[in-house]
């Protein structure tokens, strides 16, 4: 397949290794990965904050960049951005777009996937040749869990990783407290939710907490670093791209 890779804002600016790992993984599975160079933000943060008209140019650009018929699928290491493209773009286009935008959004929507659902649902694989000999716990992010409903797909992929010690996260489906601008507008509530999440992570004694969204990992990772927990965060793509011949070198977290 010819796969268009969407980096996301956080991936581009703060977590490029997660994006690179996604490309490496998909290429290792035998697919051509292309990166439309004019891609920008998907507009999720605008819509989530109540500004639905403002992201029209962003939605249009996304549809133009990834609407190329030669691109069979659009994949991104982010449940929240995939959810935005599949759900919010249609809302924006219907309310504030023209016929061309609505058509473009409809075309791209049907071929857009978060990484784990693309691997499991489209490619039909759970064993991707990964090797990661560390104790890991998984946090299911809100958008992937509730909007995309990826369910057990990330866990199926993790369970198939060679030498991994995967431990269940207590109260896994509880929000970490990030929520984009929610963490800014409701800082005290966000911090309290994060403390609950970190407390549950601590009980697993995991070396790594992984997830499918860099935004949640940024929030959780920042908290874990401040309390010197000894647990670090790592995107799911980075674990899945690690192999015996080219393993991910896990640096020790601050204690």
Could you please describe the fold and organization of this structure?
It holds the Pfam family CCG. It comes from Streptomyces yanii. Residues 4-85, 136-220 form the Cysteine-rich domain. This is (Fe-S)-binding protein. This protein has 255 residues and is an alpha/beta fold. It contains 13 helices and 8 strands. The strands form 2 sheets. Strands 2-1-3-4 form a 4-stranded parallel β-sheet, sandwiched between helices. It is globular, with a radius of gyration of 18 Å. 44% of the residues are buried. The mean pLDDT is 94.
Write the layout of secondary structure elements.
Elements: E1 2-5, H1 9-13, H2 16-28, E2 32-34, H3 44-48, H4 56-66, E3 73-76, H5 79-96, H6 99-109, E4 112-114, H7 115-122, E5 135-138, H8 142-147, H9 153-159, E6 165-167, H10 182-185, H11 187-204, E7 208-211, H12 214-226, E8 232-235, H13 236-241
Parallel strand pairs: 1-2, 1-3, 3-4, 5-6, 5-7, 7-8
Helix pairs in contact: 4-6, 5-6, 11-12
Protein name: (Fe-S)-binding protein
InterPro entries: Cys_rich_dom
Pfam family, one: CCG
